[in-house]
Amino acid sequence: NVTAVMSWLRYHVEERTMELSGGVTPATGRPNPVRIYQNSSMLTAPYVMAIHDLNNQIQTIECRGPGRIEPSDSPSAPARSEEENTFNATWTESLAIRQSPNHSIILQGNATISQTNGANGSPGMSLSSDVIEMTGTQSPEVASNGVGSENPSQKSGPDLSRISPKELVATGNVTMTHKDVTGHVRQKLSVKFLEAIGRTEPQKIKA
Fold it and tell me: What whole-number distance in Å separates Cα of residue 64 and Cα of residue 48?
């Protein structure tokens, strides 16, 4: 269930591409971000482009300018279960979310990501870097609308509330904190995650 708030929207039929912009406030000249609400999460950015496939499902989301993914501020947003982590992200340049060939998210420009564990809100892993790339980001249970479905028309789009990476690569000025331990890497850091129900935990870290 996705709801978007924006100043204007354009849909290019032949390219199956949708553009959303927040515009500016006339009185102040300040930019108004596009707000996309999905389940318990919210994405904000000045400009968002969504590319659809032949089945009219979103395959790619591109955001330009500074933005963030965070818990929804909508009063009607569903509450998270105690088993689910909260995923937060910020960036200053761009964000790209791609469904195929492998679910991936790329953040550029002072990128940060963090997790909050379950309903108790205890802090999990946090990481900052110039560029962060995550692969295998879609939780398996929401990869399709029907369990074991082979019908491509039943594939769902990206789910911002269930971002669960299998692998992460951070490049440039990397800082990572996990369980009260903080590390710094100038060049590159790779992290592989151990899968668990509703959450991910770092398993292998390579600098």
Answer: 7
Q: Is 152 helix (H, G, I), strand (E, B) or coil?
A: helix
Q: What is the pLDDT of residues 22-54, one digit of tens each?
A: 988 888 888 889 999 988 889 999 999 999 998
Closest CA to 70 of 86, 88, 85: 88
Paired with 124 in beta bridges are none
Whether the pTM exceeds 0.85: the reply is no
Give burial (CB, 10 Å; 0-12/13-18/19+) of 161.
buried
Q: Name the band, by pLDDT with cuts 50, 70 and 90, for residue 146.
A: very low
- Cα–Cα distance measured from residue 63 to residue 136, given in angstroms and rounded to the nearest whole number: 20
Nearest in space to 70 (alpha carbons), one of 105, 111, 108, 116:
116
Q: Which of 80, 59, 57, 81 is nearest to 70 (CA)?
A: 80
- From first CA to last CA, the distance across the chain in angstroms is 39
